[in-house]
Predict the structure.
Amino acid sequence: MNKFDFKISPGIVPVLDPDFKPASLGIKAFKKAVSNTGKGIPLAIALERGGGLISNYNLDIFDGNAEMDEANNFIVERIIKTLLWARGGWKVTIGGSKKVGEYIKKAYSDDGMRAFDAKFMSNVYEKKEFVVEITEYDNVPATKEDTKPVGRNLDGCRIGFDAGGSDRKVSAVIDGEVVYSEEVIWHPKIQTDPDYHYSEILSAMKSAASHMPKVDAIGVSSAGIYVNNRTMVASLFLKVPEELFDKKVKDIYINVAKEMGDVPLEVANDGDVTALAGAMDLNDNNILGLAMGTSEAGGYVDSRGNITGWLNELAFIPVDFNPEAMVDEWSGDYGCGVKYFSQDGVIKLAPAAGIELDAELTPAEKLKAVQNLLDKKDSGAVKIFESIGTYLGYAMAYYAEFYDIKHALILGRVTSGEAGDIILEKAYEVLNKEFPEIAKKVNMILPDESNKRVGQSIAAASLPKIK
């Protein structure tokens, strides 16, 4: 049995991508096929990240029949890839199938097909190597989560800083009210000297501080991966040499907070802060944030209203099981969300829509050109955003396999104007037809951009507790 012998045929096909194989249908079909044999065997997966925290995922796979090995290996590899970028981890423990365990171990070896992911994760958690351990099903370690009740602290004089790739925003917040805010254009991604980043961040902090009698705390919303307020990976510092990154970037926000009087500091991924802002606005929890912009950003607030410490890097989660799908240049993998829910996704679909984009334009300008065509009711542009909406419906069902979602905030430049409404309409069409139980549960929302910006600054400022 090969990996596509079980049915992956979407009931609603993206109009510009007839070969799309939704991950959500792949998982659903695999589970059904295993169940139909009546001979499935249980497999347990545990991922360990920083601080000994562990996330688990269990499923039944085909028994030891060699004809089923390829299907087992394919599905488990895609699930582990998903878990790594959703949860994070430097160690994977697999129990229940030595065959599958050996396959995954090889995939994540130094010369394996997932060597990039292995190296990336070991760097994030500052480990010498990425580990795949094979054991008995009953020996797989149990879940150990420790979510943090971060945010919703509105007392005192606070600074909220939002570090974007093209502009930096800062707000002065007194008892939950924004008394001053500014947006300043900056160019962090092309700077090799981290002193540039430090001086720009410090300048923003001092600007906000000048509008308050004192500074009680600083909250930071920043793209990238942060552990204990330390910068582990972030595109803002893309051009900074590795030795300078370790010396000056890892503790950049900690050092700025010391300069501002060594006040309480909390740094969080911008996607998590977006989800937190939504939770504060809706006064509810179980919120997944999904931003379609330069890439696909994600964030999550759990049932207790807490930020989880998970990576939530939706950009690198596979949403398309078609092995011929477009490859992400960075990770070298196919079918990842970044090529479906970002400006890259729009550009990818343009040729199929009969839209020729000027090669001299930047990706952001190409997105704008397509959106200008949409304003003119261009049929090709409409098909692009209908296709993205179809992708989103199937992807939301896949995300729901790994997140308990009540509300999904859908935002970012790709959703600007009429595009957002088209995307959501198609996404709901998919959910209603293919996953009616998820359609009833998940409330997808397009937040108002101006409200989101204010909400984001307050949410960022609310991150730390005042000691």
Observations:
- Residues 379-399 form the longest helix (21 residues).
- The chain has a mean pLDDT of 93.
- The CA atoms of residues 374 and 381 lie 5 Å apart.
- The chain has 14 helices and 15 strands.
